[in-house]
Amino acid sequence: MAGAPLEQVVYGLLLDSVDALVLTLLLGAALFCRRSPLSHRFFPLYLSGVLTLGAARIAPWAALSAKSGFFFIFWMAVLVLVLYSFWEERRAKRDTGDGMIAAGVQLYLLTALLLLAALAAWKRPTGMDWKPLNAALAIVLCFYLIYRIEPHRWLPFPAADAGRFFFILAAGLWMIRASMGGCAIYNAVWEGSGSFRMKGKPFALEYARAWRLPRLEKTILEYWYYPAPIGGEEKKPAPPEKLEQFELGMQEAETFRRRLFSIGENGIILVDQLADAVLQFVDAAKNPLEGRPGLEEFRMERERLVEKLSGFHTSGLDGQVFRSFAGKWHGERDGANADCERDAVETFHPTYFIHGEHPLSLIALQSFRMWDRFGWNAVISPKDEKNCRVILGMVYQVEVWNESKIWHRQPKIGAKVDERRLIWITPEAIWLEQAIPGERMEDDRNVVTGFHYKLAEGKLANEGEGFQAVYTRSPENRPPWFRFELDILVE
After folding, report:
1. Burial class (CB in 10 A: 0-12, 13-18, 19+), 409
2. For residue 204, what are the contacts with CB-CB under 8 A and spacing of at least 6?
3. How far is CA 138 from CA 58, 71, 221, in A?
4. Beta pairing, strands 466-472 & 482-484
5. CA 373, CA 410: separation in Å to the nearest integer?
6. Secondary structure class of 431 (helix, strand, coil)
7. Where are the alpha helices (DSSP H) in 190-213?
8. 231 pLDDT above the threshold of 50
9. 429, 426, 374: which is closest to 405 by C-alpha?
10. How far is the C-alpha of 23 from the C-alpha of 210, rounded, in Å?
11. Which helix (H) or strand (E) element contains residue 365?
């Protein structure tokens, strides 16, 4: 597997390094670069805001406030005292500029308090998420306390030099964040395991998350496993764990693939029926999925789909096809929480040979696991078919959290639609999977839409309703499992 492009890594790290605090400091440098009475008066207020933002980036404010409405009442009572204090200050400095600033802050706090109280009352019938609300009030109180301490009086330079002060702080913080990102890259790419502390990709991910470098975190998840140098030649990874189960599973999946392309007793080739069923499903799901992730990108000619499933003319197929699905995903399945973890893609060069009835060469591999199943997705080249690469997989369904108790086996064959879309077919079900990227990593979605089918008397028909599961990167965001009416019949 080739690593991430160097320019993508550098560009993403530069953007990540300039976070909200760095931008706030740069804005302060621009605002206070010129000396004026107005900037002199607003400097204490702006400095207090910068210090509050810096503290909020470090301290777990939500942990301070818990989840209950009791803390909301507590923060409101404290803010009443804050407002009274500002009112007294304004009376003492009624005719001064500082008094006007105090009055402005007082008006801001009063408006925020009223809006938050109105929001709480409006949300009360449907339930209120108190944690962020209480955290916001805690930050407002922190700002007030910092402002009253008057940190500007402790600075060893006059307010006239505030612009230069903010610029130096912004440059320093930017360099620190960039160097921490560089340390994460070093661990993800070159540093080996086996030291006295955690290294490699897990350590790099922890670094990226701790320093809030979302683009770098996403790049590590998508491109790297240990070891994988940027743009370099990777070493051959070890064979997968549970090697015997893996090899037996790939043999079973290849047997299933060959059965699909054989002519049945009634003269029907099953893969043709399955391809028709997939395309019927794309059309039938259009209206039920209105307003939800649709399937239009899966539309193609039947002959093209059969060709993709056959593996011919796919010599360029590699592990890139699984890369968009790597990482941890959280959603629902039949009303229950469902969490899935997919490992980074491993590329085998030279290929790993799988012995058995059907000799196979393993080109790329991705492992996955859930609480009630585990398995592999793989790019395989059958040794007896030239210029042929196919997508095979195996799912072992197990007792909950007990991988030694396997009660069902499900081989599958896949077809690549594009870099973010796959079609999967098993002896029991068909599902279409797509990875939809978001602006931020936590906005990514993995959407699985499919149906179960049955074969009887040469006909293929759906069994039950269609379904759609939407998985996200956040365990706090689990879109509900969706079912819809479906009528598929292929004769």
Report:
1. middle
2. 184, 185, 187, 188, 220, 224
3. 14, 10, 34
4. antiparallel
5. 10
6. strand
7. 200-210
8. no
9. 374
10. 19
11. strand 360-370
**pLDDT tens sequence across 24-48:** 889 988 888 877 766 667 888 888 8
Q: How confident is the model at residue 281 (pLDDT cuts 50, 70, 90)?
A: very high
Q: Are 253 and 379 in contact (CB under 8 A)?
A: no
489 in helix, strand or coil? strand
Give the end-to-end CA distance of the chain in Å, rounded to a whole number: 42
Separation between Cα atoms, residue 92 and residue 23, nearest integer Å: 35
| Torsion sign across C-alpha atoms 112, 114, 119, 124 | positive
How sure is the predictor about 67, in pLDDT bands with cuts at 50, 70 and 90?
very low
Ramachandran sector of residue 306 (left: φ over 0; alpha: ψ -120 to 50; beta: rest): alpha
CA–CA separation, 253 vs 358, rounded Å? 10
Tokens 């179960």 -> residue: 452
> How confident is the model over 290-308, as pLDDT tens digits?
999 999 999 999 999 999 9
Residues 326, 315, 410, CA angle at the centre, nearest 5°?
50
Neighbours of 191 (CB within 10 A): 16
Which range among 155-159, 194-198, 461-465 shows the weakest confidence by mean pLDDT?
194-198
Q: What value, to the nearest 5°, has the Cα angle with vertex 148 and ends 150 and 130?
A: 130
| Distance between CA atoms of residues 33 and 297, nearest Å | 52
Question: What's the confidence (pLDDT) of residue 466?
Answer: 96
Residue 394, beta-bridge partner list: 376, 411
Q: Which residue has the tokens 């700002």?
A: 143
On the CB side of 67, how many CA atoms lie within 13 Å of its CA?
3
CA distances (Å), origin 229, targets 3, 6, 190, 298, 323: 6, 10, 7, 34, 17
The CA distance from 281 to 485, in Å, is 11
What are 165-183's pLDDT values in tens digits? 889 989 998 998 888 888 8
Query: What's the pLDDT band for 197 if we cut at 50, 70, 90?
Result: very low
Go through 139-159 and write b for each residue having 16 or more CB atoms within 10 A of its CB, e for each that does not.
bbbbbbebbeeeebeeeeeeb
Predicted model pTM: 0.57
Q: Per mean pLDDT, which range of 217-231, 239-253, 281-295, 326-340 is the poorest? A: 217-231
For residue 335, the 8-state DSSP code is: T
In this structure, which amino acid lies at residue 415? A
Q: Which residue has the tokens 């803390």?
A: 71
Q: Regarding beta strands 445-456 and 360-370, do their DSSP bridges make them parallel or antiparallel, or are they unpaired? A: unpaired
- Taking residue 440's Cβ as centre, other Cβ atoms within 10 Å add up to 11
Kindly provide the b/e burial profile for residues 338-361, where b requires at least 16 CB atoms within 10 angstroms of the residue's own CB: bebebbbbbbbeebbebeeebebb
